[in-house]
Specification:
heterodimer, A: 99 residues, mainly alpha, Helix Hairpins, 3 helices, B: 184 residues, Four Helix Bundle (Hemerythrin (Met), subunit A), 0% strand, globular
Chain lengths: 99, 184
């Protein structure tokens, strides 16, 4: 097994996630694309952990999963708040800070 | 007792035969194909619920990749936390924001090609540097699965400070989410 086959899978997932974050208007779909990016990072962590025979990779993948859970919790709370105030989760409409 | 079990597990790492390697590689490429197709469908579909279900496929396939890499505890956690908890949270989000049942046409920006351009350029840069940096580097064919006992030991000894930081972060996120989403 080449190390690169895992790294390339992770790079493809990362770029698809970036595409999703850049093109989606719906707040929940943006959060889903961020999950894709975090998963790509996790594959890298675990692959390098296996490559170096080091447990740190897997341990930090677990930490990233925990942080992703926290991120989705707070992110969805914010999306719900936007929905409650504006009756829409189109994130292009949340532009009060625009000069 | 524990120590003897661990040393027993670490004895005699047998390298994988070429047939085994071929089987593992075939599995990997099938899983990678499923992952990439599901991820592409996820960012292009016009139905929010379908996007959540495609994300489910991606998460399950990533758990399979962890198993190929011998990180079984990470795979189990991926299934429990991502597929079990985060997906339910996201589906709740879809439900509470009253997404339409069926497809919607107003989910994407008009200038999608710009996003596509950014991600293609990003992939070109990343792919070039990965190819330059790791080229034909191979994983050690004798590599052993990382045992859950060893993972637990290293979390509670070497990585105890980040572990405690994550606990505090989870508490803060819990309180923060309640405070933000509460109706006054």
């Amino acid at each position: 097994m080449f190390l690169n086959q895992f790294l390339f899978l992770s790079a493809v997932l990362f770029c698809i996630g970036v595409y999703g974050v850049l093109t989606r208007k719906n707040g929940v779909l943006v959060l889903m694309s961020i999950e894709l990016i975090l998963n790509a990072v996790n594959i890298n962590m675990v692959a390098f952990g296996a490559f170096n025979a080091d447990l740190g990779g897997q341990v930090f993948a677990l930490f990233i999963i925990a942080v992703a859970a926290a991120e989705v919790g707070v992110g969805l709370a914010i999306v719900l708040l936007i929905y409650r105030n504006r009756r829409s989760i189109d994130i292009t409409e949340a532009d009060l800070m625009k000069g | 007792m524990m120590a003897s079990l661990l040393t027993f597990a670490q004895e005699t790492p047998v390298p994988l035969t070429s047939t085994e390697q071929w089987v593992i590689n075939t599995f990997f490429y099938v899983i990678a194909l499923v992952t990439v197709v599901a991820a592409l469908k996820m960012v292009t579909t016009n139905n929010v619920v379908h996007a959540a279900l495609y994300l489910l496929i991606v998460l399950a396939a990533v758990a399979a990749v962890y198993i190929i890499l011998g990180a079984e505890f990470a795979a189990a956690t991926q299934v429990l936390v991502y597929i079990g908890a985060i997906m339910v949270l996201l589906l709740f989000g879809v439900m509470l924001t009253r997404a339409k049942i069926g497809s919607e046409d107003d989910l994407n920006y008009d200038q999608r090609w710009l996003g596509g351009l950014v991600s293609v350029v990003l992939f070109a840069v990343m792919g070039y540097s990965l190819w330059e940096g790791f080229g034909e580097t191979k994983l050690d064919p004798t590599f052993q699965p990382q045992r859950t006992g060893e993972v637990a030991e290293s979390i509670f000894t070497q990585y105890i400070v980040p572990f405690e930081a994550v606990s505090v972060l989870l508490l803060a996120a819990l309180i923060g989410a309640v405070v933000v989403a509460r109706r006054d």
